[in-house]
Amino acid sequence: PTVYSLSAFAEGFPIGVAVSEWNIRNESISNIVIQHFTQVTAENIMKPEVLQPSEDSFDFEKSNELVNFAQTNGISIHGHTLVWHNQSPAWMQGCNDVLDCTNTMNNHITKVVQHFAGEVDSWDVVNEAFLQDGSYRGSADTNDGIAWVEKIGKDYISKAFITARAADTSAELYYNDYNLAFNDAKIDAVITLVEDMKAAETPIDGIAFQMHVTDTYPTIENISAAFQKAVDTGLKVKLSELDVRMNLSGEATALTEVIATAQKNRYAEIIEAYLAVVPKKQRGGISVWGVSDQDSWLSTNENNHPDWPLMFDGDLNQKPAILGFADAMLNE
Ligand code: G3I
């Protein structure tokens, strides 16, 4: 069986995919994007190191290409990401004091969000601010990136959202992080942040769960419970970077039918949990982190053994996973 258009099954929320500049220049891959998805996220080319390689000098060339591709094909854009410790240019590290660093951060947000105003529909404003124990990520855990909390203070997050809203009043603003679906300390830290922001009338529209998961972990009960906590804030809930690792141990050497079927069921149960827990008006959408297994960050960066986390194989054939995704939406 073939899925003709994954997004055709989604009622009222975007189904997205992360893409590189090479993906949209490749006809076979871009055709898959157009056929199945209604939203794209830039996998790397809207990150600070790409957009502002040196101070106050912005490079929008690749991202403008993505915007053109999206607009030509009626696809919306989720912007990723304005403030992050990783993939930020080294010069940003050099900001001096709270005022200088705040200006550096705000200037980046303002110029980028204004540039894409009316083109980017939603932003990951702040990415990965918390550690597993719910504390703020400091310089010990930034891998030579920028520990914004040490540069500016805990209110850097609120400042970033306020600045983003001022730069484009209609883009939706998300806080984005990983491991939110199994780690109570981490999801609770995010919920506390969001409640504090709401109390202070700081703009924020949604919580984005990256959802880099494995075949068995976290349990579906944990995932549903974490979605529920986010739903209870009243904000939108987005799955922003979904992929399902099937070979964490590295024991498998090939994608067998057994693995592919297990993955199909895993995609299905995650989408089902999202649809069951998140009310229609709070659905920010679901995006997968790449088109094909061959392009996945898990094949290129993370692993020294094969894995098959996405819905298309290395030859761009559909895998059972896409059926699991579609079935879950069809059965709602
Ligand atoms: O473009 C450079 C190239 O110039 C250089 O010569 C080469 C050598 O290292 O690296 C290329 O950059 C790589 C870049 O991807 C573009 O391909 C980086 O090394 C590599 O580290 C980078 O990885 C990205 C990773 O974020 C960085 O943290 C992945 O593609 C991207 O999928 C991944 O995405 C993150 C999200 O932004 C946040 N959530 C987690 C997710 C997965 O890690």
Automatic annotation (TrEMBL):
Ranges for domain GH10: 1-328
The keyword Hydrolase is annotated on this UniProt entry: yes
Keywords: Carbohydrate metabolism, Glycosidase, Hydrolase, Polysaccharide degradation, Signal, Xylan degradation
Family: Belongs to the glycosyl hydrolase 10 (cellulase F) family.
UniProt protein name: Beta-xylanase
Organism expressing this protein natively: Psychromonas marina
Portion of the parent chain present: 62 to 393 of 750
